Amino acid sequence: MKIVAEKNWDFGALARARGDSVTQAEALVFTRGVDYDIMIVADEAADFGDYISYHTWDPKLVAGTQGLVATPWHRAQDAWGSAQLQSRFYKAAGRTMRPVDYQAWVAVRAIGEAVTRLKSADPQAVAGFMVDPDFQIAAFKGVPVSFRPWDHQLRQPLLIAQAMAIVTVSPQAGFLHQRTPLDTLGFDQPESTCRLP
Predict the structure, then answer these.
(1) Tens digits of residue pLDDT in 145-167
(2) Which long-range contacts (CB under 8 A, 24 or more apart) does 84-92 make?
(3) CA distances from 55 to 28, 59, 70, 95, 110 (A)
(4) Between helices 123-130 and 99-118, what is the axis angle to 10°?
(5) CB 3.0 to 4.6 Å from 40: which of 64, 88, 99, 150, for a disulfide?
(6) Contact 31, 56 (CB under 8 A)
(7) Position with higher pLDDT, 135 vs 175
(8) Residue 189's Cα: distance from chain center in Å?
(9) Which of 105, 79, 94, 84 has the alpha carbon at shortest distance from 165?
(10) To which H or E segment does residue 104 belong?
């Protein structure tokens, strides 16, 4: 290997200067003008490294102290009012919310919402109502989530995240669908062999 450049991060601690959106300009400026095959980030204090991947001038591999995961929930999720959900969970559980915790919360929230709207606790009525095209719930993802009537899967955006930061949210802008852009994630109805009664 040959080191082609070494740069110090002189833009301050991005992780401590959070706003409504992630600052990307510093990462672009930091990585501009260097021809490299892989960038090695050394940021054990987690001041800036989480904001480098996928925000570089050239789309190149980033390694070192900071990876990418598609997940229904992430501890860095704080948009669309989810900071309140995160803080309430932390206060009750003494830890950050994990994906499995979020999935359980959505399940209970969906059942509660269906029972409240139907004014009935009949299991068959509730189950049928939850897959009705008009049934949607707010789930701190920026868009309402719903259940697919053919396989009962939850339609929801996926958070694309690094260890300590949200990189983006899928589906990505521009993906069109006749029902909902959320059906562009996973197997769609014509592609799926799963049919639940």
Answers:
(1) 998 888 888 888 888 887 788 88
(2) 85/140
(3) 6, 8, 17, 29, 36
(4) 110
(5) 64
(6) yes
(7) 135
(8) 23
(9) 79
(10) helix 99-118
